[in-house]
Structures are given as C-alpha cells and as structure tokens.
Amino acid sequence: MNNSTLKIGFIHNVFPVLSQTFISKEMLGLQQLGLQLKIYSLFGPAKGQNDTVFPQADRVHYIIPTLRPFRLIAAHFYFLMTAPLRYWTTLLFAAKHRDSARLGKTLVALITKGKVSREQRQDVLLHFILALPLAKKLKKDGITFVNSHFADAAASFALLCAKILNLQYGVTTHAYDIFAPQYNQREKLLRARFILTCTNYNKTALLERFPELAMNAVHVFYHGIETSTFLRTDQSANQHIEILSVGRLVPKKGFDVLLDVCFLLKKRGQTFKCRIVGDGPLLQHLSQHIEEKGLQNMVELVGAVPANATKAYYQRADLFVLPCVVEPDGNRDGIPNVIAEAMAMQLPVVSSAISGIPELVVNGETGFLHAQRDVQRLADSIEILMQDKNLRHQMGRAGRQRVLAMFDSKVCLQNLYDFYIKELSNCG
Alpha helix (H) ranges present in 116-212? Predict the structure, then answer.
C-alpha cells in the first residue's frame, strides 16, 4: 500500500461536537495536509452542540441515525454470504466479550429512539449487530485502515469492522476513555496496530495498566493550537484584576473549586472580576453556588461562545485559572487546550498538578500548579499574581514561548500526518 491507496476511516462517538473542537481541527488539518480520510460517527451532535469549526457535517456518515431494519439485515446477509468465516469468527468474538443480557430490548430502544443506558450501549454483541452496515459502508468507500477516536464504543465498532473486513485498526485515546471504566478496554487496545494519545502521562498510565503493551505501541501527539490566531496584541489595562476560566461546565474542570477560591479571595478583601466561559450540565448548580456565596458582582457565567470569539476574553484577562480535578470514577482531563490558548495569549496559568497539565505548565515559570482542590494555595497563587504585574507579564511571555516550542498545531499536525504515512505505508 502506498500513499495514494491509503484511506483511513475515522470512527467517532459524536461528531462534530462543540466540546471537542480539537478533534474537528485535527480532522480538517489532516485532510488539508493530503491524508485521504472519511469520517463516520455513531451519533450526531445534540441541538446547539454542533461544532461550527468543522463545516462539512454533510460529509459525515452517521451510523445510528441512518439505521434501518432492512439495511441491517441486508448487511448481515451480505457478509454471511461473502465472508462466512470472518462473519462467524467475529460473531463468536462478540458473543464471548458481551456485557449485557438485555440485547433485544436495547436493539428495539435504539431503533425506536428510546432510552438506552450506558451499560446497554457497551454491549459488544449489540455493537456487532449494528456495525455490519458500517463495515459494508467502509468497504464501499475503499477504506484501508480504521481509526477510532476514544477507546469506548467507537473503538469497539472499529475493532469489529476491521475484524470482518480483514483490516487493521488503531485507537486514539484522550482522557476519560483511559481513566473512567470502559468495557473490553484490554481487548480494544491490545488488538490495535497502534494507540495514539495526547499526553505522556496517558502513555505511562496505559503501559502501567496493560504491561502486555509494547513501549512502541503507544505514541504521543499533542493536539496543539493555532498560535498565530491566539496572539495578544496588547496587555490588558483593567481597573480591577480580571480572572478568566474557559471550559465545559462539567465536574472535572473544577469550577466549583474556582468559586470557593473566589469566595476566599473576597473574604481576604480582594477586588476582582472572574469570568467563566462555557456551558454544560453544571450551569444551574454553579449559578446557585454563586448566589449562596454572594459572588454575583464578582463572578460571571458567560455561557457558550463560538470558538473564534474566545480570543476576546483572553485578550481582556489578566490571568487564567482552571483548577481541574479527578472525578470519583477516574475521569479527568489530559491537557485542556484552553490552558495552551491562555498561555499563547501570554496569560499566567493557575491550575492543578494532575494528569498531563505539568507537561505544559511549568510551576513557578509559566504559572502555578497545586494539588487538586487546594483552595488555600490556589488563592495564595492568584493573590501573588494579582499584586505583581511584572510577574504576570514575565510568566505570560514564558508561557507563550513554551507553547510555540511544543504545542503549535502546524507542527503537531505535521508530525501526526507523517506518522500515519510512515506507519501505514506498508499496511496490508
């Protein structure tokens, strides 16, 4: 196989979704560099959650929304007739590794668009039933290699489709799919030709959890950001210090911790404005927290803004705070791209020393890192930055230089593109 015949099918859970803009940019960037790829997604984004960074949603093949009983039966009959050995082998594999005993009800719920639990959605035998129309589509599209984004249901579909088509597949892991419980995670990863991930912390965790993995089976590629876009034009001259935080309003971002920090700063007599840009399921909870703490005049929940509008918030801010935490089930961030964006905009960063964050933020040089949920020390660091303009500018400049050196999207994308071409040039 050469570059002209290589064609990768990327399987996503939901695409393109607003909370995963970095994936949309990766898909676009690889296409622009010349990688032949097609995008398949189990589901489409919910209303209002579509990522406008990816303008080609009409080119995405949606798996579950296009599911029809006749098409399902026809796909199974097709592979039963054309590849009977692979069909039965794949079916037996799925049956052996299934997780649920409610297959019939789950299938009916999916077809009728009823409610399906997370456990039901992970049943690999259900995945086998649903994956064959996708496998037929992959064959029709001339796909030569399959790559899932996230090691959850998307990886299960990639494994099954590759198995019945006699192809190889890869898995791109991020964060929650590594640390939060997943079904058949070992099988998905050990059978993959390679595993890509976005932090060295993730790579270490994978190799420790699955010692059977070869060291060279896991490869690290940072997502990167567009450093030419996130470029500060001048320093802010606010009457009061402005603190910025950006992210989806979910527990792992630590926004509840940030509000506790703001309350402590208020008690210490500090005057400031904190803006939290983003939307999510914790919106009402955080709003109530703000009222209970009497922070209405100090903290603003901005809501969701388009990706191209966030720069204005970085531009007016004096420092960036994102006190990420590890959720009880292990879910956590890798390296939030918003931290890299803030650093590119020459903002000192105050965050948590968890996951891959210390790979980008250098404690004492580009910002401050503390143990998760350490409200006291987070507030101390913010106070230091509030009172020392020169330190803010010094850390901000150092932060941009670090992002330029290791997190520029052009370099990161080129490295990823080169990997695919080199790794798969002899893929048969």
Answer: 118-121, 124-140, 153-165, 176-179, 185-190, 200-209
Q: How far apart are CA 283 and CA 272, in angstroms?
A: 21
Q: 275 pairs with which residues across the strands?
A: 244, 300
Q: Is 236 part of any domain?
A: no
The angle subtended at Cα 323 by Cα 320 and Cα 327, nearest 5°, is: 150
Residue 267 inside a domain? The answer is yes
Closest CA to 194 of 140, 157, 158: 158
Residue-wise pLDDT tens digits, 215-243: 899 999 999 999 999 999 887 678 899 99
Q: pTM, whole model, 2 decimals?
A: 0.88
Find the angle CA(363)-CA(368)-CA(372) to the nearest 5 degrees.
105
Domain of residue 300: give its range.
241-406
Q: Where are the alpha helices (DSSP H) in 268-408?
A: 283-293, 310-316, 337-344, 357-360, 375-387, 389-406
Residue 234 lies in a domain: no
Residue with tokens 């914790």: 282
Interior CA angle at 392 toward 227 and 239, to 5°? Answer: 105
DSSP 8-state class, residue 294: T
**For residue range 190-219, what is the model confidence (pLDDT) as tens digits?**
999 999 999 999 999 999 999 999 889 999
Same domain, residue pair 341 and 213: no
